[in-house]
Amino acid sequence: xxxxxxxxxxxxxxxxxxxxxxxxxxxxxxxxxxxxxxxxxxxxxxxxxxxxxxxxxxxxxxxxxxxxxxxxxxxxxxxxxxxxxxxxxxxxxxxxxxxxxxxxxxxxxxxxxxxxxxxxxxxxxxxxxxxxxxxxxxxxxxxxxxxxxxxxxxxxxxxxxxxxxxxxxxxxxxxxxxxxxxxxxxxxxxxxxxx
Length: 195
Known about the structure:
The chain is built from four helices and seven strands; from the N terminus they run αβββββββααα. By secondary structure, it is of the alpha+beta class. A seven-stranded antiparallel β-sheet has the order 4-3-2-1-7-6-5. Mean pLDDT is about 80; it is low at about 155-175.
């Protein structure tokens, strides 16, 4: 049997290498701790590059597009990371102003515009197109997109409570036109340089 093993170069050898350096596990903060995933589906994302000559659609990435709902604040974020490298290729809030339109030539693709996409770390207006494997996946995405969009309210996204703002504001003084005219009478106009 040992002769067969030596003569067959394709036979598997049980080789084990011990690492030279032991690395401790690193915790990576994805900034998604305060959010819960509501929906996820695999898709291919494109962005319209209007700067290129001629303007064209460029592939942004393939991966799972996810809808994340914040646990405290009433906001929903669309996030997509590229497969394997996990680089963010779509990162923006869902707003009522967004219009999800069917792509002209396909029943499994949609187009929408966002005013501030943060995938490149700086907010930038983007025109996105997304294509799904089949029309059923596209239908599910559209239904969830519109359902979550309808659930949004027109609120400020900061954590400041209206109650706190009201407590910090001073009550307005009741002033009448007589009070204003008396104050105007007290004002004097002096020559330049007078105090």
